[in-house]
Amino acid sequence: MLIELKNIIKNYDNGGLITNVLRGINLEVKEGEFMAIMGPSGSGKSTLMHTIGFLDRPTSGEYLFDGIDTKDFTDDELARIRNERIGFVFQSFNLLPRTTVLDNVILPLLYSSSKKGLEQRAKNALEAVGLGERITFMSNQISGGQKQRVAIARALVCDPKVIFADEPTGNLDSKSGSTVMHILEKLNKEGRTIILVTHDINVALHAKRIVTIRDGEIISDRKVLEEERVHSKEAID
Ligand SMILES: Nc1ncnc2c1ncn2[C@@H]1O[C@H](COP(=O)(O)OP(=O)(O)O)[C@@H](O)[C@H]1O
Ligand SMILES: [Mg+2]
């Protein structure tokens, strides 16, 4: 099992005011899955993604990643695993402005242990998202859809086991959103595990499994039937 969460609880303490955000999450994700996490705003989707992605530690509960209890990792070790095994894509792209597309994608490689052929690896990742021709553009001189594709290339460049995407189409028009979903589908077909957070059922139906949370609890966990799955026909140009 790639990811195993057992009774994960996450509370935030703001000056004595405790908010229970995750209230006992039990979840297993196998390598190669394509899972969507759905739920209304404020239900805990991003908090759950941050917990699974080592951006934040749970208050209590057990989290095994690749069979290893993550409690045993120091913060530095978690940061290294996060950099090498996990790729993140956010709604707001989070690219460095006034920096080229290529340099944005090279950036995570500078922190990784394998520094061979940085530029070639970044170019390969950009080709995989259809942006091989745009590498010298500044990241603020390309469209929103292209920015999100750069963000996917940046997530891909360290060859991660898992890609987390939090509302990746939330700031995009429907055509660019469809292209982004096409790329995520392709990456999953190639064997990558994808965990997608969305409140949009039409986006979630690209996945093979939908987990719904409400008020910090999983209220449903189901397979997406092949006949209801949505496949993006928007090819990358
Ligand atoms: N750092 C924090 N301190 C206190 N409350 C927080 C913090 N981060 C998130 N929350 C609260 O946790 C709940 C879930 O947030 P979030 O995981 O962002 O939900 P979603 O992504 O589903 O919209 C919200 O009520 C939010 O206000
Ligand atoms: Mg959120």
Structure description:
The protein is α/β, with parallel strands linked by helices. It has a domain at 31-49 and 86-228: P-loop containing nucleotide triphosphate hydrolases (Rossmann fold, 3-Layer(aba) Sandwich), CATH 3.40.50. Helix content is 31%, strand content 28%. The protein has helices at residues 45-52, 75-85, 101-110, 118-128, 144-156, 174-189, 201-204, and strands at residues 3-14, 17-29, 34-38, 60-65, 68-69, 86-90, 162-166, 193-197, 209-214, 217-223. Strands 6-7-8-3-9-10 form a six-stranded mixed sheet, with helices on both faces. Strand 1 (3-14) and strand 2 form a beta hairpin. Helix 3 (101-110) crosses helix 4 (118-128), helix 3 (101-110) packs parallel to helix 5 (144-156) and helix 4 packs across helix 5. The longest helix is centred in the C-terminal third of the chain and has 16 residues, at 174-189. It is globular, with a radius of gyration of 18 Å. The model has no long low-confidence stretch (mean pLDDT 95).
